[in-house]
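Sequence in, structure out.
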Amino acid sequence: MKKQIVAKKRASKITTLKLTKETKARLDKLKIYPKESYEIVLKRMLNILNICRVAPERAQKHLLKLERIKLAYRTEKNSSLRNKI
C-alpha cells in the first residue's frame, strides 16, 4: 500500500511536453548515451546555460568536455561492434 502512495506522488511530479519532431531530433543529438533520458539532457542544458551567465569560458570548457565524452563513447561502441564481426 505504501509503495502505491509513493508511486502516485512520483507520478504527480511528472509532466508531458509537446515538441516538434525537429526539436526532438535536436534533443536526440544532445544525448551522450542513446538511452539517456530527455530529463537528463534538459538538466544538462540548463546547467550549462546557468554557467554561461556567470563564466562563459567555463561553460565552453564544459561543452568541450561533453563532446570528448560523447566521442569516446561512440568510438568505444564502434570498436566493440567491429570486434563482434
